[in-house]
């Protein structure tokens, strides 16, 4: 049940920021959302320092610890972060 709750929280968070590709890359709320998504996926990051929007539902997040992740929706509609 915990996994289902986490998946629901991720989906809800992503609905708020992924479709908005016109947002500025340094938008504080987008940086915070990306930080939360990466943390919920259990990946090391610290804090997201910049985001580059590649397209709808496709972002590259750079963390303060040097890690970079491509955050996308997979074929099943789940959020995944791929280490770059």
Whole-Å distance between the termini? 31 Å
Low-pLDDT sequence parts? none
How many domains, in number, for the residues? Answer: 1
Fraction in beta strands: 25-35%
Rounded to the nearest angstrom, the radius of gyration is 12 Å
Listing every helix as H and every strand as E from the N terminus to the C terminus, the arrangement reads HHEEEE
The largest β sheet comes out as:
4 strands, antiparallel
The helix-and-strand class reads: alpha+beta
Number of helices: 2
- In which order are the strands of the major sheet placed? 1-2-3-4
Count the E strands. 4
Shape: globular
Helix content: 25-40%
Mean pLDDT: 83
Description:
The chain is of the alpha+beta class and 84 residues long. The protein has one domain (2-83). It is built from two helices and four strands, in the order H-H-E-E-E-E. A four-stranded antiparallel sheet has the order 1-2-3-4. Helix 1 (2-17) runs antiparallel to helix 2. The longest helix has 16 residues, at 2-17. The termini are far apart.
For this entry, give a set of tags.
84 residues; alpha+beta
Architecture blueprint of SSEs:
Blueprint lengths: L1 H16 L10 H13 L7 E8 L2 E6 L4 E6 L5 E5 L1
Antiparallel strand pairs: 1-2, 2-3, 3-4
Helix pairs in contact: 1-2
Short overview:
By secondary structure, the protein is an alpha+beta fold. It has helices spanning 2-17, 28-40, and strands at residues 48-55, 58-63, 68-73, 79-83.
């Amino acid at each position: 049940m915990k996994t289902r709750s986490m998946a629901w929280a991720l989906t809800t968070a992503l609905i708020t920021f992924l479709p908005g590709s016109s947002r500025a890359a340094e938008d504080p709320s987008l940086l915070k959302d990306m930080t939360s998504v990466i943390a919920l996926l259990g990946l090391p990051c610290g804090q997201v320092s910049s985001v580059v929007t590649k397209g709808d539902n496709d972002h590259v997040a750079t963390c303060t610890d040097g890690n970079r992740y491509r955050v996308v929706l997979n074929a099943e509609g789940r959020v995944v972060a791929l280490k770059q």
